[in-house]
Specification:
- By secondary structure, the chain is mostly helical.
- The protein has one domain: Recoverin, domain 1.
- It has six helices and no strands.
- The longest helix is centred in the middle third of the chain and has 11 residues.
- The chain starts with 7 loop residues before the first helix and ends with a helix.
Length: 100
């Protein structure tokens, strides 16, 4: 599954910037892939891609696999990265989190 409208080179660069464990920063990632500049409708679409079970919430196990929404070969987030990401937003705050 991919996010429509994102530049493949931007996505590749953002993924390359966080290949090492504990190097993922969601705000930097969203800015690098171009999601920060997308419309609120595009951001909502991104939320629903990440919300794999369509529960209306993004659970910890879904966030752990967040990078794999952009590339199937991407690594899983570490527990520390996942917890930091989870602590920063929920559905109502997702757009604000992406927009920075």
């Amino acid at each position: 599954m991919s996010f429509a409208g994102l530049n493949d080179a931007d996505v590749a660069a953002a993924l390359a910037a966080c290949t090492a464990a504990d190097s993922f920063n969601h705000k930097a990632f969203f800015a690098k892939v171009g999601l920060a500049g997308k419309s609120n409708d595009d951001v909502k679409k991104a939320f629903y891609v990440i919300d794999q079970d369509k529960s209306g919430f993004i659970e910890e196990d879904e966030l752990k696999l967040f990078l794999q929404n952009f590339s199937a070969s991407a690594r899983a987030l570490t527990d520390a990265e996942t917890k930091a990401f989870l602590a920063d937003g929920d559905k109502d705050e997702f757009a604000a989190m992406i927009k920075g």
